[in-house]
Amino acid sequence: MxxxxxxxxxNQIVGSGFSSAELHIKAYQNT
Length: 31
Fold this sequence. Notes:
Blueprint: H1 3-30
């Protein structure tokens, strides 16, 4: 697995993490 592929995987994880993090932030603000 090359460095470029690892970066692509990391970007996908970060991208999906942002969407779920936004949901968590909204949930915390509602409480």
